[in-house]
Amino acid sequence: MLNLKLAALTMAFAITGCAQKSETTATAAAATSAAELSSWVVSESVDPITDAKTITVAQPAEQHGDFQLRIECTGGKSSVSLWGDRFTPTTRGDSESYSVSYRFDAKPGVQFADWRALDHWASPADEAAFLREMLGSKTLYARVDSDAMETSEGKFHLAGLREALAKTLALCPALST
């Protein structure tokens, strides 16, 4: 559908000449922005017991739908996490964690960072810093190694994240970073 609209705009430009150039450019930019936003799934739920509202912004990893990057906001508190079906946390003393390696764009990677664990969720220790890095980057490559010798890895396209997060700002103003 998007390709048909862009093809129609291109044809209209060819027929009418340069007078349509700025309109075509603006429409193409809007279509690109909509395509970037569409890679993010924004959902809202309400807890049936507490009536707490949760807004989730998520994206499945490229070619690995069972591995997701998620940002959630509930009751004014936000969380950033990686989620995967096959995650089994590593137990060290009284705590559980995941070994996570990641890289933003072409920057140096971070290897084997300990992330907090909760069931199938892995969260960085400094979620605000990680979110700021996400907002300033185009791509996140991530790998989660679990105790069961399972590895989940994927590539996440971060374009459109700021627009997707805009829907959560009323509930979680801290996400405006």
Automatic annotation (TrEMBL):
<protein>
    <recommendedName>
        <fullName>Lipoprotein</fullName>
    </recommendedName>
</protein>
<feature type="signal peptide">
    <location>
        <begin position="1"/>
        <end position="21"/>
    </location>
</feature>
<keyword id="KW-0732">Signal</keyword>
